[in-house]
């Protein structure tokens, strides 16, 4: 069995077999992974990458799984979840963070160290690695604005460092979406600030988020990218789709840009509802909607 082989090869690594990924995703949906591994160090990641390459086993990498929909068939091969890699340290104006740490926690560390620049991220639940991968942002702030450098490992097992200008950041995009490299560590360059000023800004943004976003339900966050010249939630609302229930999923009554799991939704419910919203918006307004959330995995459970 693949799981047994991995446990023998990596005795220090947490390994789980046939684990349902709905336990890890923010939508509470998703089928089983053949094998889940939770490395704690960069060396472990490098060793696992080398081993899967040698064995020609598929490898999927996840962070905090907050902006992903995993299909009901799950994921074949090995799924590497990086949440055990969450060490953070401060060196003067730099906050150095392992990729599995939550961006929320990085913003709190910055607050504790009187460093300004990550206030916008105080409500973003994704991992730091995922935030770099998709250039996450909120409330007029984006990750690219505070990045100094990023350490990655290529799918061939080579560790390299990117400076900010090499990452080709744009709206919800980085070069890593093309290279598929795995983020190991991020260096944020922040500015010294007054703790009370930083905290006040974070408190304001938290209150704004709680008032406008459906945090009381499982969701994958903002489902669609913002089309140029439009607000996605407003389009969905005006098309009469707000509140629409599809299986166990619903277009949020609080914010139409969110789809919430109100009654044991499946990933298929989410995917079909997303497709329906795209179709209606295109039909009504001629506006193509592009998903911000990543949709990955298999439609049916199989084997490697």
Automatic annotation (TrEMBL):
Cellular component annotations (GO), alphabetically ordered: cytosol
Active site: 172, 222 (proton donor), 292
Subcellular location: Cytoplasm
Tagged with keyword ATP-binding: no
Pathway where this protein functions: Cell wall biogenesis; peptidoglycan biosynthesis
Entry GO MF terms: FAD binding; UDP-N-acetylmuramate dehydrogenase activity
Listed Pfam families: FAD_binding_4, MurB_C
Annotated keywords: Cell cycle, Cell division, Cell shape, Cell wall biogenesis/degradation, Cytoplasm, FAD, Flavoprotein, NADP, Oxidoreductase, Peptidoglycan synthesis
Catalysed transformations (reactions): UDP-N-acetyl-alpha-D-muramate + NADP(+) = UDP-N-acetyl-3-O-(1-carboxyvinyl)-alpha-D-glucosamine + NADPH + H(+)
Keyword Disulfide bond attached: no
Cofactor: FAD
Annotated InterPro entries: FAD-bd_PCMH, FAD-bd_PCMH-like_sf, FAD-bd_PCMH_sub1, FAD-bd_PCMH_sub2, MurB, MurB_C, MurB_C_sf, Oxid_FAD_bind_N
Family named by the database record: Belongs to the MurB family.
Name assigned to this protein: UDP-N-acetylenolpyruvoylglucosamine reductase
């Amino acid at each position: 069995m693949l799981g047994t082989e991995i446990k023998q090869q990596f005795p220090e690594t947490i390994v789980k077999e046939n684990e349902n990924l709905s336990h890890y995703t923010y939508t509470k949906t998703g089928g089983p992974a053949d094998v889940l591994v939770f490395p704690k160090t960069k060396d472990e990641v490098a060793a696992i990458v080398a081993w899967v390459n040698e064995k020609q086993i598929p490898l999927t990498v996840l962070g905090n799984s907050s902006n992903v929909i995993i299909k009901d068939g799950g994921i074949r091969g090995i799924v590497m979840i990086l949440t055990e890699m969450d060490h953070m340290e401060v060196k003067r104006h730099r906050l150095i963070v392992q990729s599995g740490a939550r961006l929320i926690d990085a913003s709190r560390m910055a607050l504790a160290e009187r460093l300004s620049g990550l206030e916008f991220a105080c409500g973003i639940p994704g991992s730091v690695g995922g935030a770099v991968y998709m250039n996450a942002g909120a409330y007029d702030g984006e990750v690219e604005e505070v990045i100094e450098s990023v350490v990655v490992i290529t799918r061939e097992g080579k560790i390299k460092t990117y400076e900010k200008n090499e990452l080709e950041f744009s709206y919800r995009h980085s070069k890593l979406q093309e290279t598929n490299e795995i983020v190991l560590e991020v260096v944020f360059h922040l500015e010294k600030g007054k703790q009370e000023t930083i905290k006040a800004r974070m408190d304001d943004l938290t209150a704004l988020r709680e008032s406008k976003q459906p945090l009381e339900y499982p969701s994958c966050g903002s489902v669609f990218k913002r089309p140029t010249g439009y607000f996605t939630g407003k389009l969905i609302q005006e098309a009469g789709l707000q509140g629409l229930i599809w299986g166990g999923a619903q277009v949020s009554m609080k914010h139409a840009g969110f789809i919430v799991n109100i009654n044991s939704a499946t990933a298929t419910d989410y995917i079909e509802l997303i497709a329906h919203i795209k179709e209606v918006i295109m039909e009504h307004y001629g506006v193509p909607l592009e998903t911000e959330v990543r949709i990955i995995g298999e439609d049916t459970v199989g084997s490697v």
